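ok so for the tutorial part 2 we go from a plain amino acid sequence to predicted structure tokens. step 1 is just haveing the sequence, like this:
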Amino acid sequence: MPLNRRSLLQLSACFGAAAMTTPLSQLVKAQPAPLTMQLDWLYNVQFAGLLLAEHLGLYSQSGVSVNLQPWESGMIVPEVVAANPSAIGCCEQNLILAAQAEGAPLKAIATMFQASPYALMLMPDRPAQTLSDLVGKKVGIHADGVKVMELVKGVNGLQPDEIELVEIPYENKLERLISGEFDAIQCYAVDEPIGFAQKVGKPPALMPMDQFGYRAYAQVIFATDTLLQQDPEQVKAFLWASFSGWKLAFANIPATAKLVAETYAAKDSKYTNVEYQQQSLELVEQYVMRGIQTSQIGRILPEQWQQTASLMAEYGIIDQAPRLEDSLDLSLWTGLA
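step 2 — the prediction. this is what the tokens look like for a chain of 337 residues:
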């Protein structure tokens, strides 16, 4: 099915009849001031649902004006949102928790990814089934992943020195894995394995860390207390349109990937490669839909959120775990999907 406004608006109508029973007229009664949605990376299929919602006019159809803003170098998304009461943002769970622990008036309200794509990547002919298979091995980790690996080792009963962790930059890490310098390297599982397969000719072996105790949410959507108190209907409309966009994105992955690559990706970026974006969106779908049904898209389980927060505090990823009532507000999305 070709990607055009008419065909995807027809798909939108189908989803509305089958999965979304809340009338648009009940979401926002009057056109409010525009919202800014601050993304935590560049335009690519990791945000396909939101980009499709904009392209198809789902935001305006639901009565909300949204400006999608890509990440810029050096930007810390929770700081940007905290300074702008009319902004919404998305980022990893640990960054939101850290900001909340420092007093930022922010609350998580939904999530795009049910699990973090944090993973270890290994050569296809040297896979590992368990963390114990990495005992005595050398693993290359980025600065933001060192404490995560300490958490994973602790949860799995391994001593801190049983797996050698070496902090490495992003540059040339594939070559260092291929050469045998490292037995495994950190990767983002919805993107980097594609580059590996293009280079090596076959996909890498992967160890997703959510399967080894790191049960953090990713691409978590959050907003300021001010916005949630003053314009809850506007936020509700944003969530409805965004997750409607995600459902439509998965209904036609090839067409969605083509749209993102040709319309939204920066012209000098790898994200203009349609095939690359299609493969990435297929991986993204696994994380958006991990362990849930379509009707549960966007959900956060409070008990999982708080358990992960406590583990992050225990292993020094965050200074302390905020109280659940200070960290999470699911009232605007529960029952709307």
